[in-house]
Amino acid sequence: MGKSPDSAIMRFLPVTTGGLSIGQGMSEQLQTVPFSLRDYRIVALSVLGGALEVYDFIIFVFLSVTIADVFFPPSVPEWLRLVQSLVIFSVGYLARPLGGIVIAHFADKFGRKHMFNFTVLFMAMPCLLIGVLPGYVTIGIWAPLLLLLARIVQGAALGGEVPNAWVFVAEHAPQQHRGYALGLLQAGLTLGYMLAALTATLITRNVSDAELQQWAWRIPFIIGGIFGFISVWLRQWLSETPVFMALQKEQQLVQKLPLSAIFRQHKYAALPAALLTAMLVSAVVMTVVVTPIALQKFYKMDAATTFEISCIAILFLNVGCVIAGKLADLLGRWQTVALYSVLLAVGTSVLTLVLDAPPKTLLLGYAIAGLCSGIISAVPAIVVQLFPSAVKVTGISLVYNLTYSVCSSIMPLALLALLHAHRWGMAVFAWGMMLLGLATAYLFRHVRCYSD
Question: What integer pLDDT is reported at residue 53 of this predicted model?
Fold first, then answer.
């Protein structure tokens, strides 16, 4: 990299840089750097903002029926209002790739920290706006239009948050603990789903239907907006990553568009990154999205019991993410992807076996499935190494957001259709994803990886 970075940055660099050995003494020192309290603080502040962003984004779907009644004409049939509400929710996902690319461009050009704060701010503002936005009865057609605008901004912000969070945490953590750090981050992000479900459930259980439609539905959005602004304030204590500072110091930042560099020099990294992202999405969709819906629609479980069981399963999923991240450091990234591809299929099969069992047995099976979903944190441990530091956020954001948008649009409906057709439909899908994961790990295990 030209001149040697200062000693503070050296802590985060690998044993070899550009094929040149740093030296045996430095090598031994790097291999024994512990995961410090400072590293935990960085992950915690990253998790706080990320979990709140997921909460802000997903709380919409839990209250979609009420939102449909508030923001669309009463003369429109109820089913059509709900469809319109869900369309506005989906638009947020469509905005992710574009927003992610724009934010990633500035993250690679001007720094990870600045855009890290920006994404939380631009998630919090629309969330708060939705919480105070007048309904259709008050401002007419402007109500759904402003709601649509808020969702577009939220989707763009979320598209920039996750890739930047991966890179920010990875570039701060000691290299031999990056898998563990990313496991902690992914565990924290999944908490956003549970926070949203918990908040929505508490609100709906403690107010009448009339109160919910009149004012109570606004509370989760206002809470999310307020905590988002608190996250912005807390993130001011974060520092720029040592890797980016080294790039600045050595004048190795991309001078032109980072996106053009991806297409010119690193397009072959896109395929393994996309396949791994599909694996990640499949685990999230099966565990967090489809199973709770299936329990209610196909197995007639009441919403309260479904929520309680799902929350416990998410907690076990969090534990599974941390374990998988640690294993990525100990066993190797590709070996961990292969292992958790198999475990994803096994865990889903166990869950399928007990879908119609009593709640306690179902809970055990669902917890096992959560523990086996560590692919969620094994994937970023590899993806953050597929692109060089100068264009890392752009490369990850491009592939991750495009793949996530496509898969999250198709997989839930496809899995529900499979489950409707046959009890073991989701398990068969999971075994198919296992084959995809094993093939990806085998075919790309020697692909070039960049260690910062």
Answer: 66
